[in-house]
Amino acid sequence: MDHAATPRYYVPDSSIWPLIGSAGLFVLVLGAALWLNQIAGGQIVTVIGAGIVAAMMWGWFGTVIGESMQGRYSDQVDLSFRWSMAWFIFSEVMFFAGFFGALFYARNYSVPWLGGMGDKGLAHELLWPSFVATWPLLQAPDPARYAAIREAMGAFGLPAINTLILLSSGATVTWAHWALKADKQRQLVIGLASTVALGLLFVCLQAYEYWHAYTAMNLKLSSGIYGATFFMLTGFHGLHVSIGAIMLAVITLRAARGHFTPDRHFAFEAAAWYWHFVDVVWLALFLFVYVL
């Protein structure tokens, strides 16, 4: 379809994908709840739900890609996509802000109060007279319920290496963007493939770090507020890196098939925005969780 003949706004046909997605998410959450509560069949239900969601994403995104390749989307639709992606990333920023806020509150308010400092320091004598305010909390309130931490997670070593890897991946995706604008197909594909490889390497190293934390440092989710905030922040970030790597892998395949032009390539930009968001979150995480 000629771009000049494209209507100002495209109204898509009725679709069953939202219904399938809702059903898949319901089954996925139900299975996760059953699994966490150790109810029989929870793992199977979770896998079924994840499969339904994956099929929905494959089908729905495929429909959108097909409509885009047919030239149905106008500049107004492109603007709508951009605002949608911007608000989605903003919601993700608020998601991580909640966990960073919990970490900040625990380190700067709750722990000092329990140690007898601040306006609410009287709680020290009432709740836990023997408590010594330190970070991370090496002294568990109930050893029978919480795993004792031997030491805090160090900033140098794997975390520093992963920081370099993720920053390098931000550079490679930007290099790929420059190539796309200059209509350099080979450089575009190489840059995207390199970004995906670096993202996968990051996830693998983080998995090894988790194994080391559990076996050598006794750092677990049950290790009080420090263990909970550490694994929640790094775990959800690792999940976002995995999602971003999948997005960029799809974009790499599309780029290899010539789906993008220097003037029209929002799908690439959306994935790149998401990847840069993942980079920035890791920098904040590395500073506040590992360094400080």
Structural class: mainly alpha
Percent range of helical residues: over 70%
Sheet-strand content, in percent, reads: under 5%
> Separation of termini?
56 Å
CATH architecture of the largest domain: Up-down Bundle
General shape: globular
Q: Let me know the average pLDDT.
A: 87
Largest sheet: none
Count of domain modules: 2
Order of helices and strands: HHHHHHHH
Rg, alpha carbons: 23 Å
CATH class assignment of the largest domain: Mainly Alpha
Q: Which fold does the CATH topology of the largest domain refer to?
A: Four Helix Bundle (Hemerythrin (Met), subunit A)
Low-pLDDT runs? none
Q: Output the CATH homologous superfamily of the largest domain.
A: Cytochrome c oxidase, subunit III, four-helix bundle
Number of strands: 0
Discrete helix count: 8
Can you tell me about this structure?
- The chain has helices at residues 17-36, 42-69, 75-114, 123-127, 158-181, 185-216, 224-256, 266-291.
- It is globular.
- It has eight helices and no strands.
- The protein has two domains: 1-73, Helix Hairpins (Orthogonal Bundle); 75-291, Up-down Bundle (Four Helix Bundle (Hemerythrin (Met), subunit A)), CATH 1.20.120.
- The model has no long low-confidence stretch (mean pLDDT 87).
- By secondary structure, the protein is mainly alpha-helical.
- Helices cover 71% and strands 0% of the residues.
- 22% of the residues are buried.
- Helix 3 packs antiparallel against helix 7 (224-256).
